[in-house]
Amino acid sequence: YPAFERVPLHLLPPAVAERIAAGEVIERPASVVKELLENALDAVAQEIRIEVRGGGLRLIRVSDDGHGIPETELAQVCIRHTTSKIQNFEDLEHLHTLGFRGEALASIATISELTILSRASETEMDELMQPALWITWRGGEQIQRGHRARPHGTTITVSDLFYNVPVRLGYSKAARTENGHIIQLVRRYAIGYPGIRFTLRIDEHNAVQTSGSGDLATALTELYHLSLSGLLHDILATDEQHYRIHGIIGNRVLAQNSRQYITLFVNGRLIQSRAIQDALERAYRPLLPKGKHPLLSLFIDVPPEEIDVNIHPAKTEIHFLHEGLLKEALTAALKAVLERVPASALAPDSI
Ligand code: ADP
Ligand code: MG
């Protein structure tokens, strides 16, 4: 190895520090889609449209009809730690938004070309086209701005992702792979928010389309193009105090070879939890053939002060205060449902 050459202790230039921090939040194109979706959901959008080209490296565009960003604030949203969602550390204990770190837009703007066009809803003219401000950042610098008419809401366009992060660009997989991650992500959000109309277009083709009916089973049918009637079973369990669990599990006929049909939301937040996954497997493993996983949409609601979401910048991991209790409740709830279902629909050797 070449000898390590120590440089004198110094503060990293802000642009370098920014680019390093950006790497923690934005791992791949799907991370951009996730952050933009979460912002649209926090803005109480009813309809969210996503457009992707070139596996997300060429273009990602998310448009919503949410409450928008006031013109006076637009120039600041790409400054790190700028947020309209919390005011002090204690607010994390009763968080009702998905965002709170104020890091996503700053990160994305640092490693791409980002344009935000937004109009805040304020008048009865909301639905009409009105002039709205747009600003473009590239590599973290504002490079252009202008006005364009639109109804209230926000459109964020990200192009040239990772143009100045050669390592990440090289690490990005084929467009097909990145598109696959994006489709899975958008499907899961559409499951989590069945009352919202989602459209995902990839290279001009519709990849996801939901009606926003508000009904979970309808959303699943729209997403998976499966005939699900009679094959889904409701899950419901609560101790009134620490948790409320609800959702849907598909029976054996719908069992899949991968976990991609398992969706877990905790307090409206899409979560990956090893602990929860273990509890789930313990419940369904005896009832499904080896290597099979159920179609399962699970929603867990707990008091906000009983989870810690501030573990990782991507916010997909959380800690539960009462993890043991929750795992037991989950296993029991799932078993109760699975045992109610006729054995013929679930027993490993019945079909
Ligand atoms: P955070 O979501 O943690 O606050 P972001 O960097 O994702 O941080 O966004 C910064 C701010 O920009 C948000 O707090 C919000 O005020 C504004 N914002 C971003 N996207 C939208 C959107 N789609 N609609 C309305 N406001 C938005
Ligand atoms: Mg955000």
Automatic annotation (TrEMBL):
Biological-process GO terms, alphabetical: mismatch repair
Keyword set, alphabetical order: DNA damage, DNA repair
Tree of life domain: Bacteria
A GO MF term: ATP hydrolysis activity
Physiological role: This protein is involved in the repair of mismatches in DNA. It is required for dam-dependent methyl-directed DNA mismatch repair. May act as a 'molecular matchmaker', a protein that promotes the formation of a stable complex between two or more DNA-binding proteins in an ATP-dependent manner without itself being part of a final effector complex.
UniProt family annotation: Belongs to the DNA mismatch repair MutL/HexB family.
Protein name: DNA mismatch repair protein MutL
Organism: Dictyobacter arantiisoli
Residue numbers of the full-length protein present here: 11 to 361 of 595
